[in-house]
Amino acid sequence: MSPKIIAIESSCDDTAVAVINNGKILANVVSSQTIHKQYGGIVPELASRDHIQNILPVVEEAVERSGIALSELDAVAFTRGPGLIGSLLVGAAFAKSLSLALNIPLIEVNHMVAHVLAHFIDDPKPEFPFICLTVSGGHTQLILVRDHLDMEIVGQTRDDAAGEAFDKSAKLLGLEYPGGPLIDKYAAQGDPYSFEFPEPDIGGLDFSFSGLKTSILRTVQKMKKEDPDSIDNNLEDLSASIQHVIVTILLKKMTTAGKKFDVDQFAIAGGVSANSGLRSRFEALGKERGWKTFIPKFEYCTDNAAMIAITAHYKYKASQFASLDTKPSARLKFEA
């Protein structure tokens, strides 16, 4: 069985389409929206409008790059959620239309499950079971992965996500949107021990970043009050200190999860896994503890359709098809 599948990802502000043949990505096209930069964050209505304009050209480009004709496709996959409901509706409607027109099965994919399975696009691939730390703007999860379609959330944030903590901190520092990558950039030149921020005192494997955000806010407010130029003058050190504490929180919980479930294979995924500080410290921790560590290529960390396609590949092999009545969900429950 060597299914040829076209996959559509439209959960936020990137319109992405990929084509996969027997588990091999033949095309992975992403159209990113720039309009949100002037507003300092994603505007849902504008995002859905841009998806409507972009989806057909992106589909056409992906099909052309793949060398696979529409008539050769075996299934159509789409992101069902979680995400922005307007954006999800555009991708779902297009996928359903294509499924009907070509008379081929429809496959719905959970966006967060797809981030985990991005590790199976290229070699090396983790072996089961392993722990995956999935970190993005909207989610922070520790996932015990037993098989391609058998996963369980064993820890998650109780309030804000790590990616949100990065972006909100960047905004406090006066950095433009998206701020997370800019904190990463400035952190490379700063001292991570210049400013001390508290780690949340919660047990178990869950995360909390709301208290940290409040601490950063108060620090910035105090500095500005004492000297209006203090933030600009200490931008690198502030960025490094903020990044250091967020990464420390993430890796401590991952270490605890590894001990609890007795695994020695670990992976990171999601948009924040593109952060150089997290990547380098994760790899260093793996060497120190004798872990096997896995990080996707940068193009598979942020939102992309290749991860939707690889997930659809395994769901196709398991005959897990969706009905045309399947509705997108902004808060879709995690389910492999």
Shape: globular
Query: Looking at this structure, what is the CATH superfamily of the largest domain?
Result: ATPase, nucleotide binding domain
Q: State the CATH class of the largest domain.
A: Alpha Beta
What is the level-2 CATH architecture name of the largest domain? 2-Layer Sandwich
What is the count of β-strands? 10
User: Can you give the mean pLDDT?
Assistant: 95
Q: What structural category arises from helix and sheet content?
A: alpha/beta
In order across it, which strands form the biggest sheet? 3-2-1-4-5
Number of domains: 2
The gyration radius over C-alpha positions equals 20 Å
Order of helices and strands: EEEHEHEHEEEHHHHHEHEH
Proportion of residues in helical segments: 40-55%
Distance between the termini: 21 Å
Number of H/I helices: 10
Main sheet summary: 5 strands, mixed
Sequence stretches where pLDDT stays below 50 over 5 or more residues:
none
Description:
The protein has 336 residues and is of the alpha/beta class. Helices cover 42% and strands 19% of the residues. Strands 3-2-1-4-5 form a 5-stranded mixed sheet, with helices on both faces. It has a 5-stranded mixed sheet with strand order 8-7-6-9-10, sandwiched between helices. β4, α2 and β5 form a beta-alpha-beta unit. α1 packs parallel to α2 and α8 packs across α9.
